[in-house]
Amino acid sequence: MKFELVRGPDVADDGDATLIFESGKEWRVTVTRNLNAPIGGPEKLVIEAVDGSEGGKGNGGYDTEGIQTTHLRAVPIAEARRLLEGVLIQRQAQSVIERLPEDFEGEYAYAALASAIVTLTGWNVTNAVAAIARAKAGLTETQSLDRKTRDLWSTRAKRARTYGFLADLDGQPVLTAKASAALGG
């Protein structure tokens, strides 16, 4: 028994992100998380027969004893959590990215990039530069980042360090006084 993602992530106006998984013609699992809620994973899980009939008749119309333990164990909660976290990170990254100037010249641009890297790292984004590149390119967490875009943002991040806007403290990026001054703080 294996569940495959058939739809999603879809994000509604109210912040609910939804994923739908199915296991062949038997069961459908709908996983929902409100991206505005302070909860770290799925908030709602609905398991139903694919044809929507009651009593577990979703597998071709014959009766079963309902959802079995093996089906419950196969529900891809870890994958759903990962995908929904990716949607949340992308949404947060997008709000940070919107503050980056289009024209990447001067101290303010590199200070803003340094600030975005520090912010995303603080949100436990594993690769903040890649998240910035994805968001700037309009890609989701599941879409591949092309080499040119990745290299562009990686080079900009290296320049932010070289120019003195970004430093490391115990392996974590931190803003320098120079970056704070360039950002007006």
Summarize it.
By secondary structure, the chain is an alpha+beta fold.
Structural summary, described in words:
With 185 residues, the chain is of the alpha+beta class. Helices cover 41% and strands 21% of the residues. It has helices spanning 69-74, 77-97, 106-122, 128-137, 147-162, 177-182; strands at residues 4-11, 16-23, 27-34, 44-49, 166-169, 172-175. It has a four-stranded antiparallel β-sheet with strand order 1-2-3-4, with helices on one face. Strands 5-6 form a two-stranded antiparallel sheet. The radius of gyration is 21 Å and the shape is elongated.
* Average predicted local confidence, pLDDT: 86
Q: Give, in order, the helices and strands.
A: EEEEHHHHHEEH
Uncertain regions: pLDDT < 50 for 5+ in a row?
none
The total count of strands amounts to 6
Beta-strand residue fraction: 15-25%
Distance between the termini: 56 Å
What's the total helix number? 6
Indicate the radius of gyration in whole angstroms. Answer: 21 Å
Strand order of the largest sheet: 1-2-3-4
Report the biggest beta sheet as strand number plus sense, adding barrel if it closes: 4 strands, antiparallel
